[in-house]
């Protein structure tokens, strides 16, 4: 048993190492000279060369990789070439913001998608079901940033009910934090919600056609009760897969909404750091993202195992 | 008589499986396709020129949907923009399919170590979503349509691989595959002759849905400045440009918004329709 | 009624990566810190004149080599350490070896620095220089204390009216009034500088009341909505940002002056400004903003829009079917402007292959460092940067020994001759079409209607907050 | 049957989709305590009838007519949903056809059984309901009922799941019990018990029973009356004895004739009810009569032995059917273990024994049958014989070629000499290929033109016209499809033909056709046949030698007649005694 756990962790660790190599290689061919960017247009070529040496940019790739990853393993992401601060805290701060944003939006999305998806599935052949389903289809087709732009225009600019953007740490001022979170979370969540509701719908539709629902109805359970008692757990499995993937893509994908709302999240940080060729920071961010996604996959698998006894014991 | 019975059985589901949805999707995509094709040969005005004398005109007889800040006819730009959207969708989905499908099939046909190994590789590529790739590739190769398409393609490939793999595993357990093996056919033959044709239904559904996603992603990338560079009109960039004129000429944001929605909706409906059609459960049960 | 609201939130676009402008380039750090947190001996006034700051007054020897500064008494840095003539000596001597950014070379004319007494500093130049004192008003003239050098990147310590109370990269910089300030304590006691990446988000924040002031809006189509809105004021001033269509004078395409001139005639600068900049800006015709004394407004008409003349010149130069690599930074004004330029060049038969390069990384590499381009479009925002532009090693590749000599002569000349010679040199550059200076970017600030004393012009890199009140 | 009003009364029931009518107005009654069988061709509408009574037709179908239940003052077809809910599971209950999917995979089976009682409040509390569920599971003979109640459906075998369904249906002592093929997944021994159980319920409680099945023997055993459906109509309705012995409708006549595996014509061929459309019967004058292979088949029959007859407990395992000369197939000590995928997060993947230490020979020209319950390892053995799978240990020689560890290249010759016919006629044909390509698939290094000629000839040999070549598999009936797969198997003129449950998916009528065809072809080509089935009757008809597999081991082997008449191993004895035969049936009916 211990062996199996160790083996799984071993696979996970190997995947992370490979991912780190991929990350490093991909980023090592970024054009642009970080030293020149740091010094600006007035610096001479000699200054730039000296700066490059100081930043350790002239060492062979393998040395740079080992140095970097070795330090990452002990929790040291290195020092940003731009802010000259340890990168770790910068990444954790931004990651925290993005995770809060993404999770809030996903919760909103679920709050919307589950009832909506079930409703559209159950009333599939009715007019109202078709209309609702149409609405969610259109919701899927609207770009997220457009939704964000429109929300800002209406609720922040025209009505002045809510701030147009920015971020306040929850520890600093929770009320303000909540106010600042509402619009971006809705913008991000509405589109995700529309997408998720499609999955909930098809998943519920699928489950509704399962024989065991018919069995439940043959027992005398009404259609609704049969669906709730027997269908939803079964429908949850495919929806969870999608949810896992969505969260994974949203960590970076939220950058569009972060831009619309000027939120200093991880995606924004990545874009800024890439622009400034702050390589240690970029590598750190990408690695954190990758590990996060891999870990998420791992967790989704775990959740499956909990929900579905077929995966728990094979017999 | 028996044969006739089976024939009607096979045809019947085709008649109504996902019918309305499918048609709605096809009509919308048809519109986009039409715009793309027409704009190759003709647009009312040049969508890439600069017309300093006709800046920001409201919709009217001459300029059906008005003009933008460069004096360009919005209608012409929308037409031409369909080309970019379709191009991005086609290339991205093409790349994703070309990379993902063989990968998934090979993994699915070789359960055990190779499959495990390939799937861990797939996990890693899943961890680099399209947008992340687009940002990195944009920095490496310079932002632009090609970079965006490639990034989207590579980013979507793992999804294709997963679908192809699960489909392949289903097909591999079918007896006709065993029969082919018993006939001495090799893996390549089985993959091409048996597996690929039989999972194509799933793949087409996936392709259609991915197409819609690619159109949306291109818009998002354009918004971030990582998409199609001007003056080539892309719907996403038109949206971004229009953002600055929201209070001056709000309609400017409406047209590309509608265009994107129509295209994405079209592909989603097509995907839904096709899924219903390919889904054996939606069909008459034997 | 009640307590006056003394907090201010300013929306800015470029975010500083850190707070150390001695080693980090870019306008963002000086914009936030210069004159607010850091001070030098002199300051550039909003109208472009040099006024005293930490130096009460100064005298210049007749040969223009010896500057005697009389310093304010009782000035302390925000960490409590005193500011004296020793600080002047320490700070300026440090520049040569420790500064890598923001023009350490500006102080090259200094031969020696001497702390005569606590309040008297004497600086001797190796040769007379008109630009030196001007440069002293910029970042290189900043006074530092030896006790607080460890953490320049995060914890700047200066003598200014504000101190940094918090800094979140990419998000905000919070300044608090310095209670111990030696001069008049500013009206605004809490100032938050919020950084945006998107101009629309910035104006939305102003419209929704999240921020009070936008200094230097970058997308001018967003301005009009504020003009009709009585809740806000629109302040138009001059910047030092010349939007420049640069031509690689050393390239095959543009080494012939006639080809460059053809470009000058081919471009309708007014149309470029109207289309790409919503009509905001000032046609300048040279690399000199009106806040510089040698500004010559007639240069704006040197090359009127005349495509026929352009075609003639091209024919004269024996050029046909010219295709140029037009490498622009991926910045909104450049992307917009390039489309108009490309269109206009096409009308005289020049094909411009536009590529938008990532800015700064790739553009700096390709265009600025490697000179691998024919044409570019970029704003030069540093004050008085025309001399630098004329250097033969500069990316423009403009090589005129005569002009360089004239600049050197001007720097060493007396004040009036200085202006005269500068005017001559810049005029020659314009005539020889060293570049096409399309227009001067306006400095437009948008503010709540009740804000007073918002600086209009931006002659220096700094955003001076000390004058703002309600 | 004191009450004159029947428990169930169906009048003029029509079920249709917007495109076609599927049930054309059927009417029948079932009285209290009456046991009615419903038989008929696959797809004739049996399941539809039952689901219509339950009011659980798929949404896409609509029903008209009247369905009345004794004591309910409403027509079930028009009754409100609330009303129906109170009846379903309580007054009327149904056992559905597919036990694999009819249970909720995420819920313990005990809870699923208990639910039907809590829904109708027939047990006071949740705990009582659980207890009663365990009792019910015991009644349906689930081993270890208390533990089984805590199992999830996937942890039970198909037969066990079917019994769970049955327990559920019986929980509230319904007035009307509808059973749709309740024993298909059960092996004959369990089937007998389950049928007895149903019978008891009906007699004890006066339940009206509708039993749907394709197994006429089952009907004969359980039912009093039988309804025969054919293409959406009830074509015959009468007492079992009458219908089975003197069927009136031509369809019923053919059906009954085809069901009887012991009644053959003068050529030793089964009676079929083939209704030729594209095919001509196998024995057309055009196809050459086979040279009788009897001479070669007349081998010295190896002794009839059973595994438990091993002399010493630890002695060498028995080699069954040991051949004297060079056997066509020689298997020694063959084991195959499967490692199940995944396992839990914290548990290693469990090992499943497919085959354990199997040794036997098959002589050239022998018709070797293998019987055994589901999951006993039959398919595993077949796959290994065809080199589609590798043994974990042991050796396998087929036609002198050693298969274990052989590379695909070494097997090239082997591949054309050993062919396989699979269980599922649809599943074994690639739906996207044309018949011509399917049949030609095993051919190698043959020009296209020649391939076509050979395909045509082969199709003719299995009784299919050349014009079927361009069609796709879905355009054929089950029997025709199985012929296609047989044609594919035979096109390379193999010396060994392995058939894995080649007729179990077919309904009786088609089954007879295919068995005849196989018998013809084996004679004609002098094949060595290895034929797997769980149906003793089929094996008995077709094979000269039979091996019985149970739990991965051969437990008994010998000449078919000998095994059938004098089974040695307890498992075989059970198997034989539980198999209903038509002879017995006739006896019982007439008595
Ligand atoms: N949902 C449906 N929509 C349309 N046709 C259907 C549907 N369900 C079943 N049918 C058709 O109705 C006919 C009768 O089906 P039914 O399931 O009752 O057959 P059956 O007699 O039970 O067959 P089997 O013995 O194979 O179970 C078949 O032709 C089938 O294809
Ligand atoms: N690929 C596999 N992985 C794991 N276990 C398997 C696999 N194939 C078969 N088994 C297991 O091996 C045992 C024998 O299976 P096999 O298919 O040979 O049985 P069978 O006798 O053909 O049954 P049936 O009559 O149901 O077809 C069963 O317990 C089965 O669950
Ligand atoms: Mg049925
Ligand atoms: Mg089997």
From TrEMBL, chain A:
The keyword Transmembrane helix applies. One of its GO terms (molecular function) is dipeptide transmembrane transporter activity. The keyword Transmembrane applies. It is a multi-pass membrane protein. It holds the Pfam family BPD_transp_1_N. PROSITE patterns: ABC_TM1. It comes from the Bacteria. Keywords: Cell membrane, Membrane, Transmembrane, Transmembrane helix, Transport. The chain crosses the membrane at residues 9-30, 94-119, 131-157, 177-200, 235-261, 281-307. One of its GO terms (cellular component) is plasma membrane. Its main location: membrane. It is found in: Cell membrane. Residues 95-300 form the ABC transmembrane type-1 domain. InterPro entries: BPD_transp_1_N (IPR045621), MetI-like (IPR000515), MetI-like_sf (IPR035906). Belongs to the binding-protein-dependent transport system permease family. This is ABC transporter permease. It comes from Cryobacterium serini.
Automatic annotation (TrEMBL), chain B:
GO terms for biological process: transmembrane transport. It is found in: Cell membrane. Keywords: Cell membrane, Membrane, Transmembrane, Transmembrane helix, Transport. It holds the Pfam family BPD_transp_1. The keyword Transmembrane helix applies. It is a multi-pass membrane protein. GO terms for cellular component: plasma membrane. The chain crosses the membrane at residues 21-42, 84-109, 121-140, 146-164, 203-226, 246-271. Its main location: membrane. Residues 82-271 form the ABC transmembrane type-1 domain. Belongs to the binding-protein-dependent transport system permease family. This is ABC transporter permease. It comes from Cryobacterium serini.
TrEMBL record, chain D:
Keywords: ATP-binding, Nucleotide-binding, Transport. InterPro entries: AAA+_ATPase (IPR003593), ABC_transp_ATP-bind (IPR050319), ABC_transporter-like_ATP-bd (IPR003439), ABC_transporter-like_CS (IPR017871), Oligopep_ABC_C (IPR013563), P-loop_NTPase (IPR027417). GO terms for molecular function: ATP binding; ATP hydrolysis activity. SUPFAM superfamilies: P-loop containing nucleoside triphosphate hydrolases (SSF52540). GO terms for biological process: peptide transport; transmembrane transport. Residues 8-256, 329-576 form the ABC transporter domain. The keyword Nucleotide-binding applies. NCBIfam families: PRK10419.1, PRK11308.1. Belongs to the ABC transporter superfamily. This is ABC transporter ATP-binding protein.
